Amino acid sequence: MAPVPRVKLARQLDSSLEASVGQCQHIYSVAKAMPSVYDHMGEWKEHSDRQSSSFWLQISAASRTPGAGVRAGEKQQLDVLPMRPSEVFLDSADLWHSGPEREGIRVLCSLLNSMRRHPLLELEPNNKSPLQTIGEEQTQNPYTELLVLRAHRDIVRFLVQLDDCRFASAGDDGIVVVWNAQTGEKLLELSGHTQKITAIITFPPLEACEEKNQLILTASADKTVIVWDCDTGRQVRKVSCFHSTVKCLTILQRLDVWLSGGSDLCVWNRRLDLLCKTSHLSDTGVSALIEIPKNCVVAAVGKELIIFKLVAPTEGSLEWNILEVKRLLDHQDNILSLVNVNDLSFVSGSHVGELIVWDVSDWTVQACERNFWTQLDTQQEIKLCQKPNDISIHHFTWDEENVFAAVGRGLYVYNLQMKRVIACQKTAHDSSVLHIARLPNRQLISCSEDGSVRIWELREKQQLAAEPLPTGFFNMWGFGRVNKQASQPVKKQQENTTPCSLELIGDLIGHSSSVEMFLHFEDHGLVTCSADHLIILWKNGERESGLRSLKLFQKLEENGDLYLTV
Amino acid sequence: MISAPDVVAFTKEDEYEEEPYNEPALPEEYSVPLFPFASQGTNPWSKLSGAKFSRDFILISEFSEQVGPQPLLTIPNDTKVFGTFDLNYFSLRIMSVDYQASFVGHPPGSAYPKLNFVEDSKVVLGDSKEGAFAYVHHLTLYDLEARGFVRPFCMAYISADQHKIMQQFQELSTEFSKASECLKTGNRKAFAGELEKKLKDLDYTRTVLHTETEIQKKANDKGFYSSQAIEKANELASVEKSIIEHQDLLKQIRSYPHRKLKGSDLCSGEMERIQDQPDQAATTSNPDESADTDLFICRPSYTPKLIKAKSTKCFDKKLKTLEELCDTEYFTQTLAQLSHIEHMFRGDLCYLLTSQIDRALLKQQHVTNFLFEDLVEVSDRVVDKQKSAPPQPCQDRPLSRSLEECPIPQVLISIGSYKSSVESVLIKMEQELGDQEYKEVEVTELSSFDAQENLDYLDLDMKGSISSGESIEVLGTEKSTSVLSKSDSQASLTVPLSPQVVRSKAVSYRTISEDSIEVLSTCPSEALIPDDFKASYPSAINEEESYAGDSEGAIHFQASISPPVLDEAEEGSLENTPSQTDSSCCIGKESDSLGLPPSTPVHTLSDEDGVVSSPPQRYRQKDQGFPVDLAVENAHPSQDNTSEGFPAYELDPSHLLASRDVSKSSLDNYSDTTSYVSSVASTSSDRTPSSAHPAGPSSERHQKRAGQNALKFIRQYPFAHPAIYSLLSGRTLVVLGEDEAIVRKLVTALSIFVPNYSRSVKPVKHWVSSPLHIMDFQKWKLIGLQRVASPASAGTLHSLSRYSRYTSILDLDNKTLRCPLYRGTLVPRLADHRTQIKRGSTYYLHVQSMLTQLCSKAFLYTFCHHLHLPAHDKETEELVASRQASFLRLNLGLVNEDVKVVQYLAELLKLHYMQESHGTSHPTLRFDYVPSFLYKI
Questions:
Q1: Residues ≥6 apart with Cβ < 8 Å to A37
Q2: Given the DSSP bridges, would you call strands A87-90 and A15-18 parallel, antiparallel or unpaired?
Q3: What letter does residue B731 receive in the DSSP assignment?
Q4: What percent of chain B has pLDDT over 70?
Q5: Mind listing the pLDDT tens digit for each residue in B73-105?
Q6: Among B319, B340, B362, B436, whose CB has the most other CB atoms within 10 angstroms?
Q7: Residues B921, A67: C-beta atoms closer than 8 Å
Q8: Which residues contact B884 (CB under 8 A, 6 or more apart)?
Q9: Poorest-confidence range of B444-458, B774-788, B893-907?
Q10: Could you say which residues from 840 to 879 on chain B have a Cβ atom under 8 Å away from some Cβ of chain A?
């Protein structure tokens, strides 16, 4: 079967394109000039307010994939419809094409790509794929058994481990489901939220506390936070006095308090009493929150990192208080990820690919890496614009010496000692990498919007192969968002090669839509959750087989069948 | 899996011994008995007599008080079935053998009429003139207007095969008891209602009479009564008496003893269920009817009538029909049950027996039988029945342990016990056991043989001699041959009990028994006992005395127990019988006469018309390349053993080579070719009933068709092996094609190779047109996928290529297969494209037996303790794994990819075993990261 050339359109519905009426008109005229696309276009329509206009673009309705990833109510046509002068709504799923139509679509996609914020439309080059692939033979891939778990009715975004054999999942349908990681059995379904869940965290029980049950805190877009008892499924408490959606939750185990980050930062105790709160920080709200020593927390608010100090009640004052200590303004774009790496430093990553390592004690910049993008884009024949999303840092993971960053579609390993990238995989996935995690045996797992999960191994490079210099090719299209990196000086990489490499040792194909997150259990394998509403439990088949045998003989013994003589 | 007589042949064949390891001998309880009459020189499907009806049917007759015995209805209700068979005459016969129809009326000591709750009587009778043998089930229904309030009825299962009736007696009895119980329950209800109506009438009459008397009294104050008044008073008194009588009757009918249901009968459990079932049905359908007693009281619609003093019993009065006697609902239910019976016992006895044994065996293998079997509920029921209603008490049976553990011998014994020539059956069994302990076993068998059967048998002897005026004989043999009596006495000598004791017991049993089970045969013609029948006896006895356990002896002896008619064909063919058995099994295994009725009419008709004679038959056999002596054998003068073994349509070369069209409309094709060969096109279309009942034979037809298409697939595609390997190893096979019919056909065909997860679901999806999803691979192991010409299929293809690691893709349009490499030896044996097997169901059975073998390997592998558990704490996983690998390779003789098949089956077994207690567990999708290859024709 010949590989079908494909044009991938937006995965998520309701994604917006920023486009002026003028830009929209430009696309229209380009599209109209191409006969292969022309047949599938509607007329240019000026709306009554003269501020917006629209045309429809149908990339062959018949070529839409019926089923996979397409939801009910999907239109039969691709609407490029400026709802507001500056926005174009795109409503589509994967499109598959071949022949002359494809060329036209490709150009259109480039046009659309060039002006949107997120890489909704992507073009996978037909002839030459930069994506590293692995064949069907994956001897090192231990996951040879899978179990599809189905309970959610919308995108599953969060997975959280409760204990050795349980985990909870939550997503846009507002429910939390507790699962048994061994059997895949659905243990509990916690429903209480009316809108999608935006954050979830477990609250481990205190040793001294009489309540031994483990708690889960969930925050939702309905502006509530609910505390659940994940052993009984009971809703313990509910807070609904928030002014905005809580986007992140963190727990300060030491003080036995938890913090919620929305448009402001609130401090709560275990019984859900509001201890103190900050003033209004920003409309967009706190996007990430971590704890650092000396009773401080770091909140990522837009481009800024704000350090707060928590004042616990002392003999002098019985009041809790939270004070803003410092604002760090080194990032040039929105901060997407923020993690504690070790006792000495924490790392933040921004939308334009800045990775900054901070000192936890004096909050100064230890190291900064801004040139991920320079390693991208070598000699691709189709030079799309350097999309900021290709370098936005979605997620971090770390070990003692390295920080692993999911940068756009690629994976980077940044060594804290050497202060440089020691290994990278520029196109680790077809699409943005959403979550990464490190396994003990120098392995790395990544999941992506392209629906796949890949397993990598960090290896020392034997031979240093020369890599071509990046050719910095930005802003091909003169309109649309002006990318930040255009103003950055294109630094030459100190060294052309990296000492290590990330080798693909296996991939897990199962989800039909973007894999949002995963969770690795030491004993039970890997759990992935996805926008296709499914959770998949990946297991080591051999190991499971052995376990089943053990169970079998256990049961035989219980039934007394083992010693039956015939 | 072992579901046809031909498997008998397989157990005998030597080529199956060529296993890489030595198979231990089959445990006794698993051995399938040879067809007992195989030595007759006929194939097992030959007809026994010139019966005038084409196939078995059920007749319901009534002994009408007006016109005498009369047939009421037949099931199936089709004149073609019973043909020229004289129903009236046969009704007379079957109604005349009811000894027990006790009269209901005024018993001597009682003032009021007493209802007697008579048990049904079950009788077997034969009428050799008509060529008919029948299981007759007598029952009495109550009718207020009938003489003595009873109406005798009987249901008869009529078959041309005496042995079928005999050997299936237990099952027939159980099934008919259900039907009877259903009728009687409905009847009691209707009777109670009728009584209530009558009581109301009487009550009303009494009131009217009373007022009339009062009026007369008032009008007449002369102080003396007129004759009119006296008449009225008498009338009133009789009405009063009648009321009391009827009230008493009502009380009796309502107090129908429930212990009767529980005790004494063989299948009380089922009966109760049946009993309850209609009640529930009535309750749900009409809440007013929840209590029988309220039934008519609650209905205000009934207006009482005045009853004349004169008796209502007049001969010109129309008697109630059976449907009126019973509630309509119960009546229809009974009819359904009867047609179920008809369906259940359709086909050849040999087939019935083997399938019973087969099911019983399968039932035992509860750990593995879910994998490749499609156990239907019916079979469970049958086996349950056999278990729940053991015909004999087991306590003093030496073999009771093994018997209790496995129902097979029970089946045999129950079968044997209802044969009239009991001892021969026993000996046949011993030959099955066939080892050194022959004598010993014989003794134990005989002694273990339940008293009841012997008693009944002996009881019968007496019966026979008593009523021999009507020349009722036990198989008609006792009188004619002294040899038999000799063997009889011999047999009874082996029984430790003395005949005297037995006999006295018999009497006592007889008196306490409420349902008498009697085996009779009316055999008026003396010419039916042929000379060679006699002649064969001495040899039989010799065999018994010298106890030569070899198979030839067995067959010799079996010859003696076979029906006389068959013996005609037996002459000189004894030496050839083993081969004959084999070949007939191999060739004829497929024969539709097993499960499908259609061939039966053909034979009957051809017998009558003499259209089919031996030459074409011989031709056919040569065609198939079978030994000539077989043809000679079959050309023996017996008029019956003609075309049975070879369903004609199977031999039609066009059929074998036929492509897709055949199976699309296979049924029609079959009937066409059948009629073509038998040259009785006009009458061979009697297959409508079977299509009406999709449960039984249709599944066989399905199997056959699947087998045939699978065979075709194997011949047509050189890459059939890897495809089948994919299925066996749990890798989903996607059959991709444009034409739905072709895809469906192939999916159905290949589904015989798909292991099931559990009993309920077959992981096969015949036709999908939407793109596949990961869930589909978890759920389905064989998928028919639509290829759409439009670009929309791109999505489908994309998802296929995306999930290619979980699937093997068979592209029917391009004739390609993309799947992993297979280098094992298992599948080539399972699916040899040069196989000599030509028939669908033969192939199906071949597959099933191979898969059974595979299952047993998987079972061994799964449950071998030392393979999976570390011997000690320090043992590494690698060691355990290597032990497993060497076991699979050396002990189970598996090479290369075959290992994966067994491992996959083992996983399924484990999951299934665990699930049994844990409720629902999800099936997991197991896969390997192995490269796939593209195969082309």
A1: A31, A57, A59, A101, A104, A105, A108
A2: antiparallel
A3: P
A4: 49
A5: 888 877 777 777 788 888 887 777 655 544 444
A6: B362
A7: no
A8: B861, B867, B868
A9: B444-458
A10: 862-863, 865, 868-869, 877
